[in-house]
Design goal:
With 300 residues, the chain is α+β, with helices and mostly antiparallel strands. The chain has two domains: 121 residues, Beta-Lactamase, CATH 3.30.450; 160 residues, Alpha-Beta Plaits. Helix content is 45%, strand content 23%. It is built from ten helices and ten strands. Strands 2-1-5-4-3 form a five-stranded antiparallel β-sheet. The termini are far apart.
């Protein structure tokens, strides 16, 4: 009783929430700040097991941590990463930041937790994280069409090259150019031209596999990466895609066709580079234009 009273008198001086537990994890003292935080009265928290302040799914793991805590005395300060979910008396959850320490009194070892409500900081951190994720996506996304931009495309292409070298995984890259797109801008204006580009991007993505990557890498230039595909399958796929795209363009009354250069990469010893692959696909695309446009030309 004297021990508990000593704790209570000391804890009320602390501005943060404070909870004292014994080796069994039972709460033997708590200040008003902690009781209010967990929406208990101070007296109703006494003799509760500490686990009752935690979500049920983490209690077993927490028991293990608690045993280790008493077996190996130590300290963890606030701000050092000990942030977890806690549960109030009404069942609502919130995040807390705690500082842990041990205190030996009259031959008994106790654990003291100084607790702060981390809700506002957690919301601020989540907001910052979401903003950073958004900015990262924006940095890798073409602002007009919403598909990958050139930066994201080249990064993914490098990954595919490494997969080919390490595991022999083949892939194909296409270079897609809109035929006579300059005439579209000249006759209909840039706003209509932007709508054409957006529609083309949607159609390419629609007619690609879910494992493929689609990017806008220039004004009226698109590119795709098709992992784990043979040369024959890649050419057939791009022919189908060209046909579907032209059909979709026709239905939308968009006055363009597509010339596609396709580069098959399936030789691990070839020492492919991003520049080399793009140059090969580009040459194949220009060959398609020379052959009358609206065609697919394969190279390797």
């Amino acid at each position: 009783m004297e021990v508990r009273q000593t704790f209570i008198e000391f804890l009320e001086v602390i501005p943060d929430g404070a909870i004292v537990i014994n080796r069994k994890g039972l709460i033997i003292a708590v200040n008003q700040a902690a009781a209010s935080m967990f929406r208990y009265s101070s007296s109703s928290m006494l003799e509760l097991h500490l686990n009752q302040l935690l979500p049920e799914e983490v209690r077993e793991r927490h028991d293990q941590h608690l045993a280790t805590f008493f077996k190996h005395p130590g300290r963890r300060s606030m701000g050092n990463g000990l942030i977890f979910s806690a549960i109030r008396r009404d069942g609502s959850t919130f995040h807390v930041d705690i500082m842990l320490n041990q205190l030996e009194l009259e031959g008994e070892l106790y654990g003291i937790a100084i607790v702060r409500d981390y809700t506002l900081q957690k919301k601020a951190e989540d907001k910052i994280r979401l903003e950073l994720e958004f900015e990262k996506r924006q940095a890798l996304t073409d602002h007009l069409t919403g598909i990958m931009n050139r930066r994201a495309f080249t990064a993914q292409l490098q990954d595919e090259i490494e997969q080919l070298i390490e595991h022999g995984t083949p892939f194909a890259v296409s270079f897609i150019d809109l035929d006579d797109f300059k005439d579209v801008n000249d006759e209909h204006g840039h706003h209509f031209g932007d709508e054409v580009l957006q529609k083309i991007a949607q159609l390419i993505r629609l007619h690609s596999r879910h494992t493929d990557y689609v990017a806008r890498i220039g004004g009226d230039e698109f590119a795709t990466i098709h992992p784990m595909i043979s040369a024959n399958d890649a050419q057939q796929m791009m022919q189908r895609m060209r046909s579907e795209l032209v059909s979709g363009i026709g239905h939308a009354e968009l006055p363009v066709t597509l010339s596609i250069g396709l580069c098959q990469c399936d030789k691990p010893s070839e020492h492919y580079t991003i520049e080399d692959i793009m140059a090969r696909a580009d040459r194949a695309m220009y060959q398609a234009k020379k052959e009358g446009k609206n065609a697919v030309v394969l190279t390797n």
